[in-house]
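I trust your eye. Have a critical look at both lines of this record:
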Amino acid sequence: MSWIYLIFAGLLEVVWAYSMKQSEGFKHFTPSLITLVAMIGSFGLLALAMRTLPLGTAYTIWTGIGAIGAFLIGILFLGEPISFTRLMAAFLILAGLIIMKLSSSH
């Protein structure tokens, strides 16, 4: 169950990162509210996952899901540039996440 909590915590991290961008520095109420609610949910689920998962594993996976998710949202919805270097960086983060998961005893 901890891995499910962790995956959803990471997805909520993507939601709050995107909505924070949409809030334009907390100038717009609705995206600001979504940011705060998603942050609380993300941190809460991360805390639940950390009950049984090691800190290093849980935190790395959580931030990695957020990083890769935000990267993809930026490209797909915000028109951010795609370059070989950025794709390679995202690939390396993903590879690190897979290795971290495979090395976890949980």
The chain has a mean pLDDT of 95.
